[in-house]
């Protein structure tokens, strides 16, 4: 199959347990919770997304004919050094496109594969690092992995109930909402102080001016 990629770039992972790690980001086009068009935001299942995932016109983006072509582009961004190769598949919703061929080709090229997903589609079993970010009102089927990243606060989500899911790390990330940043940060701090299984995760790439 072909793959529609909004953008691709080399950066540092800005969030979660892997924060600070050199990574190639592959942002797939398309999502199953929002069209990406502002006129549809009010009726979307996910209404606070801060990412442009529409089309294939971003830096490094395009439509790749097969897994080999996409992995060649990923490897070109990383460079010749094969040590600790790390790729983050994100979106939109990457599990709309990630398949056996892509996972096999990335592994063959020496990449550790991480995914950032809303969890409404099962993660591919070959992915090395699974990060799930649940959205209120959706049916999350991927309830195990390496990292559960809850954007907080969200109405209709009970963080205590999420503690029963099978994740090695539970992370709270303040909702990036204009005019409410400090209040949301304090809400996360309060929850971590009350429920110590959780950890605070900040979007360090935004603080550093990285993509």
TrEMBL record:
<feature type="binding site">
    <location>
        <begin position="48"/>
        <end position="50"/>
    </location>
    <ligand>
        <name>S-adenosyl-L-methionine</name>
    </ligand>
</feature>
<feature type="binding site">
    <location>
        <begin position="12"/>
        <end position="14"/>
    </location>
    <ligand>
        <name>substrate</name>
    </ligand>
</feature>
<feature type="binding site">
    <location>
        <position position="46"/>
    </location>
    <ligand>
        <name>[4Fe-4S] cluster</name>
    </ligand>
</feature>
<keyword id="KW-0004">4Fe-4S</keyword>
<feature type="binding site">
    <location>
        <position position="49"/>
    </location>
    <ligand>
        <name>[4Fe-4S] cluster</name>
    </ligand>
</feature>
<feature type="binding site">
    <location>
        <position position="31"/>
    </location>
    <ligand>
        <name>[4Fe-4S] cluster</name>
    </ligand>
</feature>
<dbReference type="InterPro" id="IPR013785">
    <property type="entry name" value="Aldolase_TIM"/>
</dbReference>
<keyword id="KW-0408">Iron</keyword>
<dbReference type="InterPro" id="IPR007197">
    <property type="entry name" value="rSAM"/>
</dbReference>
<keyword id="KW-0411">Iron-sulfur</keyword>
<feature type="binding site">
    <location>
        <position position="51"/>
    </location>
    <ligand>
        <name>Mg(2+)</name>
    </ligand>
</feature>
<keyword id="KW-0456">Lyase</keyword>
<feature type="binding site">
    <location>
        <position position="27"/>
    </location>
    <ligand>
        <name>substrate</name>
    </ligand>
</feature>
<feature type="binding site">
    <location>
        <position position="90"/>
    </location>
    <ligand>
        <name>substrate</name>
    </ligand>
</feature>
<feature type="binding site">
    <location>
        <position position="92"/>
    </location>
    <ligand>
        <name>S-adenosyl-L-methionine</name>
    </ligand>
</feature>
<keyword id="KW-0949">S-adenosyl-L-methionine</keyword>
<dbReference type="InterPro" id="IPR030977">
    <property type="entry name" value="QueE_Cx14CxxC"/>
</dbReference>
<keyword id="KW-0479">Metal-binding</keyword>
<comment type="similarity">
    <text>Belongs to the radical SAM superfamily. 7-carboxy-7-deazaguanine synthase family.</text>
</comment>
<dbReference type="InterPro" id="IPR058240">
    <property type="entry name" value="rSAM_sf"/>
</dbReference>
<feature type="binding site">
    <location>
        <begin position="133"/>
        <end position="135"/>
    </location>
    <ligand>
        <name>S-adenosyl-L-methionine</name>
    </ligand>
</feature>
<feature type="binding site">
    <location>
        <begin position="173"/>
        <end position="176"/>
    </location>
    <ligand>
        <name>S-adenosyl-L-methionine</name>
    </ligand>
</feature>
<dbReference type="InterPro" id="IPR024924">
    <property type="entry name" value="7-CO-7-deazaguanine_synth-like"/>
</dbReference>
<comment type="subunit">
    <text>Homodimer.</text>
</comment>
<comment type="pathway">
    <text>Purine metabolism; 7-cyano-7-deazaguanine biosynthesis.</text>
</comment>
<protein>
    <recommendedName>
        <fullName>7-carboxy-7-deazaguanine synthase</fullName>
        <ecNumber>4.3.99.3</ecNumber>
    </recommendedName>
</protein>
<feature type="domain" description="Radical SAM core">
    <location>
        <begin position="18"/>
        <end position="211"/>
    </location>
</feature>
<keyword id="KW-0671">Queuosine biosynthesis</keyword>
<dbReference type="GO" id="GO:0016829">
    <property type="term" value="F:lyase activity"/>
</dbReference>
<comment type="function">
    <text>Catalyzes the complex heterocyclic radical-mediated conversion of 6-carboxy-5,6,7,8-tetrahydropterin (CPH4) to 7-carboxy-7-deazaguanine (CDG), a step common to the biosynthetic pathways of all 7-deazapurine-containing compounds.</text>
</comment>
<keyword id="KW-0460">Magnesium</keyword>
